[in-house]
Amino acid sequence: MPLVVIFGRTNVGKSTLFNRLTESEKALTSKTEGTTRDSNADVVEWGGKKFELVDTGGIIDETSELILGKKKIKANDIDAKVQKQALNFIKKSDLILFLADAKTGLLPQDELMAKYLKKRREKKVLLVANKVDNYKKVNEIAQFHKLGLGEPFPVSAATGSGTGDLLDLILKKIKAPQSEKEETKPDHVPVCILGKPNVGKSSLLNSFLGEEKVIVSDIPHTTREPQNIEISYKEQTITLIDTAGISKKGSKGLEKYGIEKSLKSLRKSQIALLVIDTNEGLTHQDSRLVEKITERGKSLIIIANKWDLIEPKDSKAYTSYIQKKFPFAPWAPIQFISAKTGKKVPKILDLILESKESREKELSQSQLDKFLNRVVKIHPPAKSKGIKPPYIYKITQTGINPPEFEIKIGRKDTLHFSYVNFIKNKLRERFGLSATPIKIYVKKASPGGL
Known about the structure:
alpha/beta; seven-stranded mixed β-sheet; globular; six-stranded mixed β-sheet; 11 helices
């Protein structure tokens, strides 16, 4: 497997990022310098592929001269040995994640380590700016351009924001083998059912099984749960992966005990059904889960259950309420149902198949060329900075499950994020990409041309 190494000075969040990307608590984290000694290693599975990730000890002031070869290691110098081990992993790596701290800003140690990495020209380096907890702070990472390691990629290892896109970018830079665990047959649709306790997940599952013209069989669950349920519907197989209800446990709340446990069940899923109780208000737990689902590139269908108990039934107002609570997925369809009575439940199965079709849709280049000509006439491209309006040369599809696209702009141009969202919305509208996230990467033309 390819080796990806997290590298950086102390207290930039390397172990936190390692735990986040591996979905584990393997690496010990604290605010104390030098907490990580022996490097941690684990396998990351993402997008049907896998690679080995290593968390190294941070470079600290007293031993930073090691990277310039100016210091010898003494027999009892534990810190120096930790740093030396980190440098050995760098030499073996296929990709280096050079982690910087957006809150603290650029420090001399960062520049020293960047100088070391630039000398190793044969190594691929991805500059990651950690602790960018909200979009207002994205502009603060511009200072890291001075390191000469390319465009800094913003993430928050603590909250998980941006880590899904980071994993996508890592897979683009390495040759990772296919993970057997995530391989699925063309006619197979793995679906994960998520939600808090008592929202009606079990009732929904029972309602699925009671529908007419549905053939049901029990199959062994290969990971944590006793079994999954397999349903044959319209000549396709839907596997329902049930999860325990998400609730607060212990002092650290949902992020540690609820969301992470349920997200493990998403590894084998393409689509998530988030069941909510229309009698109860939506919480921060629900919105955090939606954010996590979309970051992992999963399709999302929101199941508004117990609608039979609501009076008066104003689905338009409740839809608006849900969309305000879940700003990360305005594209997710909302299906109002009663799992108890079975009303509107069959529609969910149709939405699942529609979502699968959207995830696997491949558009021809001629379709995308016509699409681009049309959208730039409707709304000319908007710049994020500078004076010159950006020019879009081309839009191409680079992947499916979920659909991925690349927009190529002029070498000195910039494209505002709102315009990228505009293109996403138009792609959905034009090609019927429902219930699925769309990933778009903006790439600048090379000096010699496209």
